[in-house]
Amino acid sequence: MTLMTYTPFDRQIDQLFNDSLGLRSKTAAAWAPRCNVYEDEQRFVVEAALPGMDAKKIDIQVEDGVLTLAGERKSAQKPEQTYLVKEIGTGHFSRSFTLPTNVDQGKVAASYKQGVLVIELPKREETKPRRIMIDAE
Fold this sequence. Notes:
- The chain is mainly beta.
- 9% of the residues lie in helices and 34% in strands.
- The strands form two sheets. Strands 1-2-7-6 form a four-stranded antiparallel β-sheet, with no helix packed on it. The protein has a three-stranded antiparallel β-sheet with strand order 3-4-5, with no helix packed on it.
């Protein structure tokens, strides 16, 4: 593998090609965290990979049925550094998810451990599956 010096001009050329070929939305952020979203009987869970971020710099909002994660990762680049590969996104980010109607928005909880943000969105009690007992004689 041959390593070449990274320049901001390279990113601009990549963005030009991506935009002209429709490979990325023109309104997309410079970077966005990778996320997993899953559900079980009790809740929905969003996991976002945010390594190296300070939890205090991550903003989580739930409003009108939309979960939004936002924040900013500062660049640690020093003037004497010359990047050969630069894949870790920096700058502002924002990710939004439309929530199902059965989420109890008042009980959303979040935790951050080892660079992974976990947001738990419990389902409302009346929408959880329940077992109905049969009264047999």
